[in-house]
Amino acid sequence: MRSIIVTAALALAITASAQSVQAATSLFDQGKWQEAAAAAVALNSSDGFALAAEATTAGSALVPDNQKKALFEKAQGYAKQAIAKDKNNAEAYFEMARAQGRLAQFSGILQSLGLAGDMKKNLDMAIKLDPKLTGAYVALGLWNANLVAKGFIAVRASGADKAQIVPNFEKAISLEPDVAVHRIEYANALILQGRKADAATQLQKAVSIPANTFWEKRDLEAAKATLAKLK
Predict the structure, then answer these.
(1) Rounded distance, CA 46 to CA 28, Å?
(2) What is the DSSP string of the chain?
(3) 82 pLDDT band (50/70/90 cuts)?
(4) pLDDT surpasses 60 at 110
């Protein structure tokens, strides 16, 4: 009898936790990133801290440049807590990598290359834990594209490979063909390579995909603006 009660209590706790994550995700989808991060942190779980990291990194797009670095560092801290709670949480490693990638943009060359190395390790771990984690493939494609664009020294120091750009994006798109941001980021990587016509093709496909959340709508407007510049 006692085991039945314990099992039922555990099931209720899991259900409540899932509902709480859904509530925080709903806030995030509405663009209320600060409220979402606070609600996610309050869960004190690996998934909660991973969501808090995602919301904080995303929120950086809405603040002045002089506030961005602090948010990326904060997101990195949340991701560390997510990993500490569950070392098998693929999303946690992905969010760590995402925060590191953004932070690298605000760091000196040596620190940014160090962050690039850590970012690659975290993306590799995320994919090892979840081979269908599409965001990690997109991030790997961008990782290679950005470092290749920086030139020989960055490539030599990081091990970036131009030949790994397209396959990673194609993998993500094959898994989630109707997610616009994958194609938008693919276009950004193609632009770095000077392949504007191919980038326009990806953006045309991206703008045809319905946008529902606050962030998807922002991505859609950005895609339209970039597409207009390419024409």
Answers:
(1) 17
(2) -HHHHHHHHHHHHHHHHHHHHHHHHHHHHTT-HHHHHHHHHHT-SHHHHHHHHHHHHHHGGGS-HHHHHHHHHHHHHHHHHHHHH-TT-HHHHHHHHHHHHHHHTTS-HHHHHHHHHHHHHHHHHHHHH-TT-HHHHHHHHHHHHHHHHH-HHHHHHH---GGGHHHHHHHHHHH-TT-HHHHHHHHHHHHHTT-HHHHHHHHHHHTTS---SHHHHHHHHHHHHHHHHH-
(3) very high
(4) no
Interatomic CA distance for residues 229 and 220, integer angstroms? 14
- The reported pLDDT for the residue numbered 108 is 59
Residue type, 19: Q
What pLDDT is attached to residue 198? 97
Q: What pLDDT does residue 106 have?
A: 75
